[in-house]
Amino acid sequence: MDLRIIKVTLTTVTLLLAASLSFAYEENAKQPAEGKPAKSAKKSANSKKVSNVSLVDINSASKEALKKLPGITDAYADKIIAGRPYPTKARIQTANILPAEVYAGISQKIIAKQPFKDSSQNAAIYSKKK
After folding, report:
1. Going residue by residue through the chain (130 aa), what tens digit of pLDDT does each one get?
2. How far apart (Å, rounded) are the C-alpha atoms in residues 91 and 83?
3. Chain-centre distance of CA 9, in angstroms?
4. In whole angstroms, what is the distance from residue 80 CA to residue 113 CA?
5. Which residues have CB under 8 Å from 70's CB, separation 6+?
6. 35 conformational bin, left if phi > 0, alpha if psi -120 to 50, beta if neither
7. How far is it, in rounded angstroms, from Cα 15 to Cα 71?
8. Measured between alpha carbons, how far is 70 from 98 in angstroms, rounded to an integer?
């Protein structure tokens, strides 16, 4: 009988501790950290603007569309087109097609769409490229 009471008591204490930690975590998540400003409605409005901007597909964009991106010159646009297709947008930097500074400036404005929904077909394209 005493062992059963101890088990029930320990279980109850554990559940109460977990619940109090959960509530404390939720309260901390709602409050901004010290020294950091709270997120404003203006920032969330700006993030909505970014999502409405059309992204440039580096696997299919024309040279003119690529040149509209900041830091992309005629030479960079030609290098991007010559290196197609790209499995990911980061490949244009890792393959030394663009310098890191230029890639950092356009990384949020580009995507690398894949031609097929089946990944094995896409993999076949990239293996032939090498």
Report:
1. 688 888 888 898 888 777 777 766 666 565 555 555 555 545 544 544 445 568 999 999 999 999 999 999 999 999 999 988 888 999 998 999 999 999 999 999 999 988 777 777 767 776 665 5
2. 10
3. 46
4. 14
5. 105, 106
6. left
7. 56
8. 12
The SS3 assignment for 57 reads strand
Cβ atoms of residues 125 and 115 within 8 Å: yes
Number of Cα atoms under 13 Å in the Cβ half of residue 109: 14
- How is residue 104 written in tokens? 């950092």
Q: Are 57 and 110 in contact (CB under 8 A)?
A: yes
Whether 106 contacts 69, CB under 8 Å: yes
Spatial distance between the Cα atoms of 68 and 51, rounded to a whole number of angstroms: 18
**DSSP E strand stretches across the chain:** 56-57, 110-111
Q: Can you give the pTM of this predicted structure?
A: 0.54
Coil, strand or helix at 4: helix
